[in-house]
Amino acid sequence: MSKSVLLRNLINSDNLEFLMEAHNGISAKIVEKTGFKGIWASGLTISSSLGLRDCNEASFTQVLQILEYMNDATSLPILVDGDTGYGDFNTARRFVRKLEQIGIAGVCFEDKIFPKTNSFIEVKGGQKLADIREFCGKIRACKDAQATKDFVVVARIEAFISGLGLEEALIRAKAYQQAGADAVLVHSKIKTCQDIDDFMQRWDNSCPVVIVPTTYHMTPTEHFKEIGCSLVIWANHNMRASIKAIEDVSKQIFENQNIQELDDKIKTVKDIFEYTKEAELKDDEKKYMNFLKLDQQLNQSI
User: First and final CA of the chain: distance in angstroms?
Assistant: First the structure.
């Protein structure tokens, strides 16, 4: 079963499913080991892992390179945060083709203008959204360009983020679904689930709904299932946890000028080797080096 099929099954599952954020190969491995069924490759956390802002400072090709390492590191399907598609419909569909070539399962595009602005950054007058017709064309172009029928394209609606409200969110969601989106992601940054509740009460269930409860995380998860959401994304928590851990360890070592009393804060080198499968390589060396020796003996006997 392809990774795209796995992701499509998650989005269309009768159960509420979850994606966990990862931003490089090792974090992807950790997410899989933990037990999650899929990965969210966050634009924010991939950018920040490079020391860059979340406004398309990381190039198209830089992001693809990281995604290829992530995809190779795990058997889980990856849904990529594709921002606005790096430009117009043509760059977006090229991005889709490249994602498929490296085995990525799906992509999510947001209906803002390029270069993107992170949804949690306040902009006077509200962040500007793309024209509905232009964004529908982008979604349609990506669906027409994909090589396999199972690749997933999710349309992310920023109407609540931009202060345009419920009616605009519903209009956009329906238009994007009709343009071919396999699911819609309804984004909100208020501290309650009210925006999502209002949307789900009016939504006709013509395609699955994805949510990102970063700010309204105090809402019981069971509520998301009760109102009909299909997929929850935990969007940036591994990066935030990593920053906290690195800050704490670096500070302790700097202040103490030693690495004593760190055992409860860090993993061992052996733990790293387990994630990178060093033992597997040693076994392969024995297998193939012995084969080479045998081959040399045969050559000598001829």
Answer: 46
| Predicted TM-score (pTM) above 0.90 | yes
Residues carrying an active site annotation: 54
Angle between helix 89-101 and 60-73 (nearest 10): 30
125 three-state secondary structure: coil
In 111-254, DSSP assigns E strands to 152-157, 183-186, 209-211, 231-234
- State the CB neighbour count (10 A cutoff) for residue 131: 11
Task: Output the CA torsion sign for 99, 104, 105, 111.
Answer: negative
Whether pLDDT at 295 is above 90: no
Mean pLDDT of 92-113: 98
- Amino acid letter, residue 234: W
Whole-number Å distance between alpha carbons of 200 and 213: 15
Pairing type for strands 106-110 and 78-81 reads parallel
**pLDDT of 126-175, one tens digit each?**
789 999 999 999 999 999 999 999 999 999 999 999 999 999 999 999 99
Domain residue spans in the chain? Answer: 3-235, 244-301
Using CA atoms, how far residue 230 sits from 87, 181, 225, 274, in Å, is: 29, 15, 7, 34
Q: Phi, psi at residue 232, to the nearest 5°?
A: -110, 135
Fold of 3-235: TIM Barrel (3.20.20)
pLDDT of residue 293: 62
Contact predicate 165/202, CB 8 Å: no
- Radius of gyration over alpha carbons of the chain, in Å? 22
